[in-house]
Write the structure tokens for this entry.
Amino acid sequence: MRVAFVGKGGAGKSSLAGTFARVLGAAGQRVLALDSDPMPGLAFSLGVAQRDAGLPDEAVEEYDDGGRRRYRLRDGLTGTGAIEKYAVRGPDGVYLLQLGKARGPRWDNTRQHFGFQQVIDDLPGDGWHVVGDLPGGTRQPFLTWGRYAQTFLVVVEPTPASMLTGRRLAKLATTASAPAVMVVANKVSDPADAMRVAERTGLPLLGAVPHDPALYRADQCGRAVLDHDPDGPTAGAVRSLVAALRRRTEPA
Ligand SMILES: Nc1ncnc2c1ncn2[C@@H]1O[C@H](COP(=O)(O)OP(=O)(O)OP(=O)(O)O)[C@@H](O)[C@H]1O
Ligand SMILES: [Mg+2]
């Protein structure tokens, strides 16, 4: 499967994407977790220690395009090759490739940006799952960065602002190439919350994740929830999400 998590800022995209990737990895699947958020996130929820590393400068070369400065992956380096060489292996065997993180006032990620864009157009094929974590907002997911996804999972909290955002993202998603858009209700405190999220967003519900104080505590100490509370409610709910999406996307 190729899935990308989208939604309002703070809805829980990174927490759920990292846990989702690890659940797949723990089931013996080959998983690439892709973090295109220039702010920190996915490495924490995966439990990967190397938190800022993106594509190194050596992976990307500058070239002249009729007087304009452009960047591309180094001669001979494919997207799949870049993943083999530069993705970091984390717990449960998950590979993580991230866009370099924003650092310092003169931070410029132009090189990495173009390298990363090429990588998402040349992802490894058969036998790999791709789980992407996109930044909050509207531009990144649907205009360019989420183009590898076959399924968008819109993460929505049972609050008016989050549900309205989910509804608007669902409309934007109709302009994207992904065949499927579904909603995940997050931080729910009773089953009616999940139904409300589905109704208000107008999206099919893949599943729900309860409001879980253990997830918040894991975040506070910078740990993956799967390491902090491996049999807790978040782990259980995300296992159900993975199983539900596998049933929908994989031939019986
Ligand atoms: N099910 C949950 N129960 C309790 N807290 C949660 C749950 N899911 C996420 N959180 C908390 O919500 C906060 C935001 O989560 P997270 O960073 O995953 O969101 P995000 O959508 O990736 O945010 P951003 O838009 O900044 O990238 C964190 O403090 C996290 O611990
Ligand atoms: Mg995030």
Summary: The beta strands are 2-7, 30-35, 60-65, 68-73, 88-89, 95-98, 128-133, 151-156, 180-188, 205-210. The mean pLDDT is 90. The first strand starts at residue 2 and ends at 7.
